[in-house]
Amino acid sequence: MVFYDESIKKDIKKGILPKAIAELFNKTFIALDKSKDLNLFDIKKLITYSSIDYFRFRKGKYRAIFYIEKGDLYVVTISKRAEVYKKWQ
């Protein structure tokens, strides 16, 4: 199952994150949840000092940061490249 952070939902409502981009990421995360294969998409594991393994998914100018826990996907943020890493840290 795919879970989104509340800040992502707020960004969509406010128009900060375009609905078309949100739908594109949602379809991709659903496909990723079904296949469980990270090699199908442009996904990289991020280097962090956290005990959680975070991943970056890239689609054009936008990036999504997420992690996997017990087979579920938890999306932390979706934003433009210049902003995503500032929001996430």
Distance between the termini: 24 Å
Q: Report strand order across the widest sheet.
A: 1-5-4-3-2
* Helical proportion, percent range: 25-40%
Shape: globular
How many H/I helical runs?
A: 3
Q: Beta-strand level of the residues, as a percent range?
A: 25-35%
What class do helices, strands and sheet pairing give?
alpha+beta
Mean pLDDT across the residues is: 88
Q: How is the main sheet built? A: 5 strands, mixed
Describe what this molecule looks like in 3D.
The chain has three helices and five strands, in the order E-H-H-E-E-E-E-H. It is 38% helix and 33% strand. The chain is an alpha+beta fold and 89 residues long. It has helices at 6-14, 19-35, 81-88; strands at residues 2-4, 43-45, 54-59, 62-69, 72-80. Strand 2 (43-45) and strand 3 (54-59) form a beta hairpin. A five-stranded mixed beta sheet has the order 1-5-4-3-2.
Q: What's the quick description here?
A:
The chain has 89 residues and is of the alpha+beta class.
Please specify the SSE layout and strand pairing.
Blueprint: E1 2-4, H1 6-14, H2 19-35, E2 43-45, E3 54-59, E4 62-69, E5 72-80, H3 81-88
Parallel strand pairs: 1-5
Antiparallel strand pairs: 2-3, 3-4, 4-5
Record keyword descriptors for this entry.
89 residues, globular, alpha+beta, 33% strand, 5-stranded mixed beta sheet, 3 helices, 38% helix
